[in-house]
Design a protein that fits this description.
This protein is mainly α and 121 residues long. The protein is 69% helix and 0% strand.
Length: 121
């Protein structure tokens, strides 16, 4: 396993504690646009294989949340705290649609990586 300092999301600022109102709006916009979210999330899991492997294979829960947070960071430089705030601005239908996209991206990734280990990335 790679240490957390090697995770691409960490290196890009996922856990920064400062954010702007514009970042919250950008995250909400991404999560509420299923086509853009799917495109960005698919690209993100390919571009960040170490973070994706750790967060999608080893987490018991929160995989959909990580996909949303990492996608907002990847596309717009939004730290996860701002994406969590943005999530609360979405209505229930938008949240369900975003979760469906994240689940689809996760399943597509799993199908591409059947039988691979972290060291085969």
């Amino acid at each position: 396993m790679f240490p957390w300092t090697k995770w691409e999301d960490f290196q890009a600022g996922m856990y920064d504690l400062t954010y702007t109102a514009e970042q919250v709006l950008a995250a909400a916009s991404l999560l509420s646009d299923v086509d853009e979210f799917h495109e960005v999330a698919t690209e993100m899991v390919r571009a960040w294989p170490i973070a994706a492997h750790h967060n999608l294979k080893n987490m018991w829960t929160g995989r959909n949340a990580w996909i949303g947070q990492a996608s907002a960071l990847y596309a717009y430089g939004v730290p996860n705290i701002a994406t969590r705030i943005a999530w609360g601005t979405l209505n229930l239908d938008q949240q369900r649609a975003a979760n469906s996209v994240a689940e689809r991206v996760r399943i597509e990734r799993e199908q591409r990586h059947v039988g691979q280990t972290l060291f085969a990335l």
